[in-house]
Amino acid sequence: ASKDPVSLDQPFHRVSYTAHM
Questions:
Q1: What stretches of the chain show up as alpha helix (H) in DSSP?
Q2: Distances from the Cα of 5 to the Cαs of 10, 16, 19, 21, in angstroms?
Q3: pLDDT tens figures, 1-21
Q4: In angstroms, how far apart are the furthest CA atoms of the chain?
Q5: What's the superkingdom here (predicted)?
Q6: How far is CA 8 from CA 11, 19, in A?
Q7: What is the DSSP letter of 4?
Q8: What is the C-alpha separation between 20 and 14, in angstroms, rounded?
Q9: 21: helix, coil or strand?
């Protein structure tokens, strides 16, 4: 269950950063 939220948080944050750029 720990990997589920972490995996989703990692790609989501990365996409947000790329979209901001």
A1: 3-20
A2: 9, 16, 21, 24
A3: 456 655 556 666 666 666 555
A4: 31
A5: Eukaryota
A6: 6, 17
A7: H
A8: 10
A9: coil
